[in-house]
Amino acid sequence: MSKIKKKRIFRININDLILFKILYKKMKKIKSIYLTILLLFILLIISCHPEREYDRYSLLKFSSDSVFIDTSFATVTTITRIIKVYNTSSKPILIDKVYLSNGSNSMFRFNIDGEPGPIVIDLEIDAKDSLFLFINATIDPNDANTPFIIEDSIIFIVNGKNQKIKLAALGQNAYFHTPDHPPTQYLPAYSLVSGVWENDKPHVIYGIAVVDEDCTLVIPAGTKVYMHRNAMLWVYKGGSLKIKGNPFEPVLITSDRLDPFYRDQAGGWDRIWLSALSKDNEIDWAIIQNGNVGIHADTVANANPTLKINNTIIRNMSTACLFAQGAKIVATNCLFANAKYYSALLSIGGYYVFKHCNFVNFWNTSHRSSSLLALNNYYKDINGNIQIRPISVYMGNCIVYGDQEEEILIDKHPGIDNFFLTLDHCLLRTKYNLGDSIFINCIRNKDPEFRNHSIGDFRLQNNSPCIDAGKINISWGINNDLSGGPRIANGVPDIGAYELY
Fold it and tell me: Over the stretch 226-248, which tens digit does the pLDDT of each residue have?
């Protein structure tokens, strides 16, 4: 890869001759003709350079003559695009100038072969060689609520002609929630969030956003929430989270990396944490994706559920879609899909009711060693003592299915009869045979025949064994399925989150 160079001409300049004359006199005094000859040779090497013969007619080739940067939030540096600049000639080419058309007013930046813009001059590319051009932008905010385009060009002046690379980026204004409270003994720097969020622009969370004690955060239908790396939405004790989407305008919570490579990558942010003693949390019609843990519901000490969650998709998590620790959760029409370890980990006891939910996992057989559904009723405290808590799990008209031969893990502490499990009219992938009192009219180890699990389409095909196999009274009061259509299409409900129409 070439470096920036100036033209070099074969010459011995006057300073070299003066230096040589002085040194020659010194060498003459010590009668060392051999050293004098050696000195002359060295001066010739360091002072004489062959003149470069440039190609005066050829132009450059580019790997692309345009750059488009997908949606980026205003004030945040975009991803970096890379263009290769080629010299296909058999001679070197001198680029007289590379510059941004809008100069110092441009929102774009570039760096070519280690030299930053907005202007670079006298750049040389050797014969049959290439340079790397790096391009990004920082988009200034404006009054627009919808995405907007910014444009510019990078101009190359080569052999008296202009060559152009067109630049465009899609900007989006947003509400930013950044840490503005100092760290405490228990918490790093954080921001406080509450009230009813506006949904006219996206919300971007950096660090930890806390719903404080006795506060409520309402996220209305159509709101888009983008979480930065390691960001967390934490509902503190006494606080409440209300996510209120609808079938036509679900609430989206996802990573703030919007470029195509990262758009479907798990682990882009941390979690939504419903901490112990948070209360009356409700999630309806939401899509939560691409984090470490979708929902982390912690221990609760009152009679009300920690969380009521309906008509919600939690998917593509690097640890678990749902992680509950002694919590109380009631869920209907939910999809917990694809995580590196667990679609649902229900640990340290708790009370759980799931109706018409899909627990599915096709993450990657070679990288997932755990069953997708894990149930546990004990833990080891800080003193090494085993603490046992009762657990009650009811699943009605649910699907538990993935690419492992065993997709249910029952981790029950021996000798304690406080583990209550009922799977009622469910389709299961499991080797367990726990009897009719626990597996009530369940279908075991049959493919549910999803439409296309490889692209996350978990609706049923016409030949699915789940069709009309559900229990009617489980569906009472549940009027729709996860797609928003009627729940009981043919008199008897289907098993799972989706009804076949």
Answer: 999 999 999 999 999 999 999 99
